[in-house]
Amino acid sequence: MTTAAVVPAAGRGERLGPGTPKALRLLGGVPLLVHAVHALSAARSVDLVVVAAPADGVAQVRALLADHDVGAEVTVVAGGTTRQESVRLALAALPDAVDVVLVHDAARPLAPVELVDRVAAAVRDGADAVVPGLPVADTIKRVDPTGRVEETLDRSVLRAIQTPQGFRRPVLAAAHAGADDSVSDLTDDAGLVERAGGTVVVVPGDEEAFKVTRPLDLLLAEAALARRRALRSQP
């Protein structure tokens, strides 16, 4: 099977603060997007990577990736105004030979190669849709619009979902084709598959695959990257 990884990177990520789009913020001197693409391209299961860049920044992103040795065939296309639209545009750019599609957030720059291969392997073994997830450590409460607690949820059956998420290409393509662009309550592609009636399987996630959303997350990522580099330098 041929596997492609899609990276929607057209958003600005305003919660990280004003300025450079989030995917181009630096982590250890290298843009988050480059870290993410490198992690995908280093996986044995990934044959090519497609990045959906801001419509006015396609040339910039192409030049950026060309300047870094990301180690795989990378195509850059213009993304849309929403994450959903960017993934759909990237799907349309995939070669016909692609059977398995991974969708990965550029804001998860430290996702280990082993996680990428784990997700892809689960799809190749027969699952229609696969997401990595971690057990929830915090107590989770459901509240009403006024903030009144309605229910304390059983965290033993909850998982915090990460990316990359993996799909059989026809399953993901059908979910996007049938999705309404006005849908705003779904934050990942697995949600589209669920809404379309598909089955999603959870595999173990990884603590290093956390999402860089706020300034504190970027500090944590710097610390995690420094630790990773120190371990690699040990004899």
Structure summarized in a few sentences:
The protein has 7 helices and 12 strands. With 235 residues, the chain is an alpha/beta fold.
What does this structure look like?
The structure is a single chain. With 235 residues, this protein is α/β, with parallel strands linked by helices. The protein contains 7 helices and 12 strands. It has a single domain, classed as Spore Coat Polysaccharide Biosynthesis Protein SpsA, Chain A. Strands 1, 4, 5, 6, 7, 10, 11 and 12 form an 8-stranded mixed β-sheet that branches. The protein has a two-stranded antiparallel ribbon with strand order 2-3. A two-stranded antiparallel ribbon has the order 8-9. The longest helix has 19 residues. It is globular.
Helical proportion? 25-40%
Give the averaged pLDDT, no decimals: 92
Radius of gyration: 18 Å
Number of helices: 7
The proportion of residues in beta strands is 15-25%
Main sheet makeup = 8 strands, mixed
* CATH class category: Alpha Beta
Global morphology: globular
What is the CATH superfamily? Spore Coat Polysaccharide Biosynthesis Protein SpsA, Chain A
Q: The CATH topology is what?
A: Spore Coat Polysaccharide Biosynthesis Protein SpsA, Chain A
In total, the number of strands is 12
Number of domains: 1
**How does the helix and strand content classify structurally?**
alpha/beta
Query: Which spans of ≥5 residues are poorly predicted at pLDDT below 50?
Result: none
Q: Helix and strand string, N-terminal first?
A: EEEHEHEHEHEEEEEHHEH
Q: Distance between the terminal alpha carbons, to the nearest Å? A: 37 Å
**Proper CATH architecture:** Alpha-Beta Complex
